[in-house]
């Protein structure tokens, strides 16, 4: 490509960097020449990335519409679409009337969390709550099922012993809501078969078994008088926790290391659901939306990352929008720009070739930089990739981060609109024209302000200013812990108001 062609391909942002530089004095001249050649070579690469990641309204609309269609097809029959549309068996939602002492146990990564809550009904609500985080020793992540569940049961027992201000009526067993964020084939509200361990776990003897049974047996072995009365995933627990405070909550979305969504569906709108419906007539359905794939604007970096992953061809939406991957997509783009566009000068920083060396929190830290010379960007690049960077390179790095996070946030927003559209199509007025809440949780959503902004922007663009005013997208802080305890209460063996 000729120099002229490259120059015309320059994006406005890069163009402005260059014009500012042209006023530099003599001492800065050398640097200016070097930087200028950097941006000349990199500019078309950045422009190409921005074009490939672009999410104009028609792209968003197509994603929202395809998400709706996939939801419908997945509800019709198992295997009907990329979305599994898993029935949660949660068909009575918290009302606020729940009373008593309940526990929650959250196992979904290298830590597990135990929580206890004393519920006081409509007037008193949450009287007291207490939680503890326990890290799982590395060796237990590849031990036997008995070892792992014995460890969890013991930690739960230690925690339970310490509850001074918490009261359980005599003769009653403590009940637990178990949030288990691994792939499970749910068989009832309090049972589910582990399909496979993920996230670094390779515990032997659990796959194919009921995980509630495994925990209950471990509690029996340890002589602990507690029982699991609800098994849920984190998205479902988040919806339940948010719904406790607000009846308008209809959808919950997790944006953390991975991503998922669930919503409240009418049972008669689920053709694959057989048998009699409970009185509520509604249930929570878990989309497993990370597996969605239609109409996504993908780049060569996404394709390469997918090919190198442990699950090629799977979880494409998750790989485009969730925290585990955004840093890695940016790293691949930056490495390419360093190699093909001399982004960081003549040499290519060696560390930048290491997969996953740049993490999503690094992107977020760089994007919060407000200094004139982009000091934070400079130090993150230095610390993470051993890169000494000029200001112009830092500006381009920021453009790359913004391009990746903008696409992610906007696509997540389109996914949310897809869910809302599906509910509205079935029941006119169920969503639009009244207040509807989407409960959000997860470290990515919580800690990346630009991501939140792009997500909201996309929802507003898709729905228009008037309709979107009634759609409240809000962070449900720690909703999932309390949510699981609340589901233990709504599914209590002793009735929900004891
Ligand atoms: P998990 O999804 O593993 O249950 P969290 O909901 O706490 O856990 O999310 C953790 C994820 O959130 C991290 O893997 C990371 O991708 C993302 N994250 C954490 N901190 C930040 C941050 N400061 N900025 C952007 N993303 C972050
Ligand atoms: Mg989590």
Automatic annotation (TrEMBL):
Enzyme class: transferase
UniProt GO MF annotations: ATP binding; D-glucose binding; fructokinase activity; glucokinase activity
Domain Hexokinase C-terminal stretches: 251-489
Hexokinase N-terminal domain span: 47-244
Source superkingdom: Eukaryota
Keyword Kinase appears in the UniProt entry: yes
GO BP: glucose metabolic process; glycolytic process; intracellular glucose homeostasis
EC number: 2.7.1.-
Record-linked InterPro entries: ATPase_NBD, Hexokinase, Hexokinase_BS, Hexokinase_C, Hexokinase_N
Keywords: ATP-binding, Glycolysis, Kinase, Nucleotide-binding, Transferase
Gene Ontology CC annotation, any one: mitochondrion
Metabolic or biological pathway, per its Swiss-Prot or TrEMBL entry: Carbohydrate metabolism; hexose metabolism; Carbohydrate degradation; glycolysis; D-glyceraldehyde 3-phosphate and glycerone phosphate from D-glucose: step 1/4
Family: Belongs to the hexokinase family.
PANTHER family: HEXOKINASE, HEXOKINASE-LIKE 1 PROTEIN-RELATED
The protein's name: Phosphotransferase
Species per Swiss-Prot/TrEMBL record: Hibiscus trionum (Flower of an hour)
